[in-house]
Amino acid sequence: MASGHHLLLENAQQVVLVCARGERYLAGPALRSLAVLEGASLVLGTDGFIKAIGPADVIQRQFSEETFEERIDCSGKCILPGLVDAHTHPVWAGERVHEFAMKLAGATYMDIHQAGGGINFTVEQTRRASEEELFRSFQQRLQCMMRAGTTLVECKSGYGLDLETELKMLRVIERARRELHLSLSATYCGAHSVPKGKTAIEAADDIISNHLPKLRELGRSGEIHVDNIDVFCEKGVFDLDSTRRILESGKEIGLQINFHGDELHPMRAAELGAELGARAVSHLEEVSDEGIAAMAAARCSAVLLPTTAYMLRLQQPRARKMLDEGVIVALGSDFNPNAYCFSMPMVMHLACVNMRLSMPEALAAATINAAYALGKSHIHGSLEVGKQGDLIIISASRWEHLIYQFGGHHELIEYVIAKGKVIYKK
According to the model, what pLDDT value does residue 287 have? Predict the structure, then answer.
């Protein structure tokens, strides 16, 4: 079509832009009110990018001569940016439903881990699974995330722990990136756990000498594209020194640092992240005051995971203190066999109730700030001209219903649009 205008979303009750001035993230006082237009329309181009947003009558005049391939009447509805899930472990075999019963009976995460369960159980099953099996289950999980409004997902490896299985997981993520509609950010998380029979130092040496050079080679040949490097920095897993060595080696081959820190014990991981120029540190249930200050100064985002603290009955990360000190707060579902949640609307609700975020703070954390944590906020995370056309349309007169109606997202979300195309319609 000559015009290059593909889709018109007209007369929305509210269009939640989140940002209106090209901000790469929102922190501090900027979070008090998000950019929202009332009675507005939005135009998507055939290239999948946003061409125009504005008052419905202005857009109608501006495009009165145009013919659109599709128009969606959004009267009485709200348009929001597609949600961004900044932390998931979505490629694995080996459900751990039996461990949920153990946790409910009082077993801790580390009890189960040391008994050969947890990550180790999933690693054994994932090593046995074929690439095709892993792809099929991954594809189904991404579909579930998408129907809950997610359009950009961070996806970690980390249930291989040996080079062969880690590469198998990364190939599955690469295939999904090429074949499916959602946008993905791929994270190499080979340091998710210390493999049986190795010490943390031996595992770190193997990653630095063998895994990372292979990833660089596959990246250069275009076979596998990896965005981020992750380490589980934790007592009894990778200590601060091994974590530093792995992250620095990953940074040398061009990966963004985005790692697990200060979850079960205070490890000074936040301070390390700030020092190394990390994009993000996840978890932070046990972060120190110094770590919070260092992250704020370094513009290192905090990826908070409300499902983890909720399901493991951990103390909640100190989100209010982080926000008050100007840390860039993002959210993730932490989808994995230990925290089986696909839904960013439920994650936002938990963040509001258990971590005391306001609804605007939670939405920013699940859109622009989550995109920032992945180094993608220049094209994702807000509805602005020139950004990728990833958005959701909800059947409610105010956008807050997406957070307020706990577990109600399946009824609310009428359309999911990714790269300017309708990929889900209720």
Answer: 98
Could you say which DSSP state residue 306 is in?
H
Q: What is d(CA 148, CA 342) in angstroms, rounded to the nearest whole number?
A: 7
CA angle 81, 76, 146 (to 5 degrees): 35
Task: List beta partners, residue 258.
Answer: 280
Spatial contact of 260 and 230, defined as CB atoms under 8 Å apart: yes
Amino acid sitting at position 213: P
Q: What is the pLDDT of residue 27?
A: 98
What distance in Å separates the CA atoms of residue 228 and residue 133, rounded to the nearest whole number? 24
| 225: region left, alpha or beta (phi > 0 left; psi from -120 to 50 alpha) | beta
Q: Which residue has the tokens 């659109």?
A: 68
Q: Closest by alpha carbon to 224, among 233, 215, 232?
A: 215
Planar angle of CA 264, 372, 43, nearest 5 degrees: 140
Which amino acid would we find at residue 330?
A
CA distances from 101 to 33, 112, 116, 310, 343 (A): 41, 11, 16, 15, 22
Q: Is residue 276 within 8 Å of 247, Cβ to Cβ?
A: yes
Cα atoms in the 13 Å half-sphere on the side-chain side of 2: 3
State the DSSP code for 417.
Answer: E
Spatial distance between the Cα atoms of 34 and 359, rounded to a whole number of angstroms: 10
Residues 18, 363 contacting (CB under 8 angstroms): yes
User: pLDDT tens across 132-161, in order?
Assistant: 999 999 999 999 999 999 999 999 999 999
CB 143 within 8 A of CB 180: no
Q: Is this prediction's pTM over 0.90?
A: yes
* Angstrom distance (rounded) from CA 63 to CA 275: 50
pLDDT at residue 2 tops 70: no
Three-class secondary structure of residue 234 per DSSP: coil
Q: Structure tokens of 2?
A: 């000559």
Rounded Cα–Cα distance for residues 237 and 234 (Å): 5
β-strand 301-304 against 35-45: which pairing, if any? unpaired
Q: Quickly count helices (H) and strands (E) in the chain.
A: 18, 16
Mean of pLDDT values over 302-312: 95
For residue range 177-214, list pLDDT tens digits in order.
999 999 999 999 999 999 989 999 999 999 999 999 99
CB 153 within 8 A of CB 184: yes
* Closest to 15 in 3D by CA, of 69, 48, 47, 59: 59
